[in-house]
Amino acid sequence: MDTPPLVIVGAGPIGLTAAAHARSRGLRTLVLEAGPTAAAAVRQWGHVRLFSAWSELVDPVARDLLSASEGGWTAPDPTTYPTGEEWASRYLLPLAEALDATDEVEVRTGCRVVGVTRQGRDRLVDSGRSDTPFELRVATGERWERVPASAVVDASGTWGHPSPLGSDGLPAYGEAEHADRITYGIPDLSAPDVAERYARRHVAVAGSGASAQNVLVALTGLAPRGTTVSWLVRRGETADAFGGGDNDQLEARGALGKAAEAAVRTGPVRAVTRFRAAGIGDDPARPGALRITSTDGATVDGVDEVVVVTGFRPDLDWLGEVRLELDPVLSAPTRLAPLIDPNVHSCGTVYPHGAAELAQPEPGLYLAGMKSYGRAPSFLALTGFEQVRSIVAALAGDHEAAARVELVLPETGVCGGSGQFDTPAEDAGCCAAPAGDLLTIGPPAG
């Protein structure tokens, strides 16, 4: 009987990198992607520019595979900053094609993993557990498939599971009922129909990280069309929300912070501090408008649209029948959590880590990439590349390589750690997360 393949869940940047490393070690690998294409999640925020330059967004093993592929590959200028769509079209989609063309790797799209277990064993059964293959339940359209696996790397990320408006971690009262007026994430205001949605409107923006600041700056561009903005901030002041400015070691992030600060100081943005949203409902004083209520009874009235940029969280439901050991605060692997606590660490102070920190009590199961960070926001693509390099080495039996550190992270300056944010789950906008198209809405640019 053939040994089942390594199954990687998610054909995003980290999942495809894991597949490239697995191929380099001769491991038969199946990549399952829920979206219609590889990098589907990245393409959903394709209008947003990254804080990280191309030099930090291409894995060396993946680059070698692309360079050796039929027709070759032209590497982008390593000093420039791509948008999500550029990252996908110029690197991730070609990488998926190159991997799928090999004998070792198959990339399947339109395959949503809805459960994983050990074949014939639920979470309670000890006997023979480590010697029994995994089985993934996969939805493909209206069909269900059973997919065996020798090991599973969950690189499915957190996109698609945004944190809610409610400050207590639950949806605000009325949030579901008014979902048609709420956008989660950074709207693409370069699209005329999207810009028209927010023109001549009072827009409430919830969140204090880089993603929220991108929204503030973008909406400022609609001020001549009558758009006004209320920025709902949980902290007591906004001065420390804007990063390091000219001293920020991520130039693009510093420029964004300065532009956002200017929007608050002289633009159409009104900051509403110490506002912890509890409910959203109809504004009794203005028919058709919304009222957002804080936990202390304060209100923001006359709201037409709401943009929620309070971060993302992992979907753990489909992992319910395997054995996990996760930090109770971050929902990250317990050995990783102290290294990424946003109250202590910024992007550049997260120590490189791998299989040892990411392994679960279920042998052969690993969480990687943004999924491994749980609710912590300080993720770098480089960190994810190092994670899966180590994980694949461990799965291939090369424990010396798995334990070796092969990454020196850039020092990234002010990035949301050191107690700077009073709500760690809130988007702190780090270095390989969407950063905003600064070429369009602000100073030149990760």
Note down, in words, how this protein is organized.
- This protein has 446 residues and is an alpha/beta fold.
- The strands form 4 sheets. It has a 5-stranded parallel beta sheet with strand order 3-2-1-7-16.
- A hairpin with a 7-residue loop joins strand 12 and strand 13.
- Helix 1 packs parallel to helix 4 and helix 3 packs across helix 4.
- The chain starts with 5 loop residues before the first strand and ends in a 5-residue tail after the last helix.
- 53% of the residues are buried.
- The C terminus is likely disordered.
Quick description:
This protein is α/β, with parallel strands linked by helices. The chain contains 13 helices and 16 strands. It has a five-stranded parallel beta sheet with strand order 3-2-1-7-16.
Beta fraction: 15-25%
Give start-end ranges of low-pLDDT stretches.
412-446
The overall average pLDDT, rounded, is 87
- Biggest pleated sheet: 5 strands, parallel
Total strand count, please? 16
Sketch the topology as an H/E string, one letter per element: EHEHHHEEEEEEHEHEHEEEEEHHEHHHH
* Content-based structural category: alpha/beta
> What separation lies between the terminal Cα atoms?
47 Å
What helical percentage do the residues reach?
25-40%
Please, how many helices?
A: 13
Radius of gyration: 22 Å
- The shape, in one word, is globular
